[in-house]
Amino acid sequence: MATNFLGMKKSSSSGGLHAMEGDGFEYSLGPPESGFSMFLADRTKKVHFIRHAEGYHNVATKETGSNECLVPKPGEKAADLDLYDARLTAKGIAQAEALRAHLATRPSGSRSFTAFDLVVVSPLTRTCETALHVFGEPRSPGKPAFLDQVDAPVNSPEYAAGVKISPPRFLVREECRERWGHYCCDGRRPIREIAKEFPNFDFSEVIHDEDVFYSDERESDEHCCDRAVKFLEWLNSRPEKCIAVVTHSSFLRHLFGQFGESLHNDDRDHLQRLAGNCELRSIVLCSHGNKDGKQIDPLMPPPAAPSTIRMSS
Questions:
Q1: Residue 313 CB neighbour total at 10 angstroms
Q2: What is the pLDDT of residues 103-130, one digit of tens each?
Q3: Is the pLDDT of residue 20 over 50?
Q4: In the structure, what pLDDT confidence band is assigned to residue 34 with cuts at 50, 70 and 90?
Q5: CA triplet 219, 220, 224: central angle to 5 degrees?
Q6: In sequence order, what are the residues at sequence separation of 6 or more whose Cβ sits closer than 8 angstroms to the Cβ of residue 81?
Q7: Are 187 and 78 in contact (CB under 8 A)?
Q8: What average pLDDT is seen over the chain?
Q9: What's the pLDDT band for 33 if we cut at 50, 70, 90?
Q10: N or C, where is the chain less crowded by C-beta within 10 Å?
Q11: Distance between CA atoms of 89 and 254, rounded to whole angstroms?
């Protein structure tokens, strides 16, 4: 079933659906009867979205039959629970390694394997682990590609020819983290702890050490949809043309649920369905030009409730 979120509206000019009110993103492009859309090639880039591999929280919800095992009981702190910022299981690690093997034989461009210019990673532990097992060690932040060369995938024609490639950078962005709040698995540890475990990941664009986003309340659908579109704006601003994004199922649901209304039913259902653990879903992102050059503001926590303390005059 297609997912519809609040905040969508019909375009008064074309009748197409807008992703969010006033954002200018329209689904319907070109003559509606043609079944095609045309985009300028330099306004497009390939984005490969990957949901994290199986985590211990996934196992817990399957075994108990609900998400209630992820909700702190009265008096408990989410950060004290075993499933807080949950890690990958042994099965999850195997899933990530299987995807790595698949990418090593998946032709892309002129190569016999799929290579990436950049890997964008949610700051949660399970996505960092997934990225590491799928792509291997990243290029160190600040190190030029020509100084960090490794062999092409084993058994590839490029490997036999002695071709060297540069590993992609891993850039951590808070915008593509899971829908936060309520469930302990969706909080994250302090960045100072995570960065020690993943020393070659680039955390320089994460503003907050502590998790200032997690709360007892679940992030609203509207807010998650909004930051998902803002994440697309940020991706569009990047110079790279082939990007992998390691993220989460609910974030992807809120992202993809805003697009695809003009697609064939099968394609729309494929785009919008719930992603499985370590599933790869590849799309072409096209800029309409109306967001190019726009300043991208960093993700900030919702404003705190106003103080009710009255000071004597």
A1: 3
A2: 999 988 788 888 899 999 999 999 999 9
A3: no
A4: low
A5: 80
A6: 72, 184
A7: yes
A8: 84
A9: low
A10: C
A11: 25
* Single-letter code of the amino acid located at 220: S
- Rounded-to-integer distance, Cα 35 and Cα 177, Å: 34
Clarify whether 54 is annotated catalytic: no
Report helix, strand or coil for 143.
coil
> Which residue in the block uniquely carries the two structure tokens 């082939």?
242
Of the residues 52, 133, 182, 254, which is catalytic? 52
Among residues 178, 219, 233, 240, the one annotated as catalytic is 178
Q: How many angstroms separate the CA atoms of 272 and 205, rounded? A: 29
**Spatial contact of 194 and 128, defined as CB atoms under 8 Å apart:** yes
C-alpha dihedral sign at 231, 84, 180, 215: negative
The answer to whether the beta carbons of residues 47 and 281 sit under 8 Å apart is no
* pTM score, whole prediction: 0.83
- What are the CA-CA distances from residue 297 to residues 108, 248, 294 (Å)? 33, 22, 9
Two tokens at 79?
Answer: 């950060």
Closest alpha carbon to 198 in 253, 256, 138, 265: 138
Q: Is the four-CA dihedral 83, 172, 24, 297 of positive or negative sign?
A: positive
Which residue has better confidence, 110 or 172? 172
Q: Are 89 and 59 in contact (CB under 8 A)?
A: yes
Q: Per-residue pLDDT for 186 more than 50?
A: yes
User: d(Cα 102, Cα 282) in Å, to the nearest integer?
Assistant: 14
